Amino acid sequence: MPNDRMKLEGFDELVEKLGGDYATAREAAIEAVNEGAKVIEKQAKANAPKESGLLKKAIGVIQKAYNVKRVFAAIVKPRPEKGGTYKGKYRRPMKYGWLSENGHIDAKTKRFVPGSLWLRRAVTQRGAAAQARMAAVFKEKLAAKK
Asked: What are the beta bridge partners of residue 112?
């Protein structure tokens, strides 16, 4: 399994160098994490299985910021509000996205259907590019604030 977490170390030192301007450092970190996640999102959409196209349309980025722990996260996953009809039935990719990722037992044949690992492959394929994009955006935002 690929390393799907990227850690920014030295955030407190960065705030000190900015003269205690936590808001500027926080804004830069959130923007950098979001831009890095967009790189992964684009590759995940390209890797997603194309049975109906609903999963590809539903993949998006959700941002989280936990100020107390100084954790800034961007989660790439099928968004809950997206859905559509396929072969006359309403489907929500949020409900079956993990099945297409990890695999499942087919209801009719009772055999295991392996997953396509579309999200893990996206992290493996574009993880380094996402880290580079995060670093570039972070430096750009901090340079603009000085």
From this structure: 105
**pTM strictly above 0.90:** no
Distance between CA atoms of residues 17 and 98, nearest Å: 42
d(CA 124, CA 20) in angstroms, rounded, equals 36
* Euclidean distance between CA atoms 63 and 54, whole angstroms: 22
Taking residues 73-83, report their average pLDDT. Answer: 89
* CA angle, residues 35, 132, 15, in degrees to nearest 5: 75
Number of C-beta neighbours around residue 101 at 10 A: 22
pLDDT band at 1 (very low <50, low <70, confident <90, very high): very low
* Cβ(134)–Cβ(29) below 8 Å: no
Give the long-range contacts of residues 89-98, CB within 8 A, separation 24 or more: 91/52, 91/54, 92/58, 93/54, 93/55, 93/57, 93/58, 93/59, 94/58, 96/55, 97/55, 97/58, 97/59
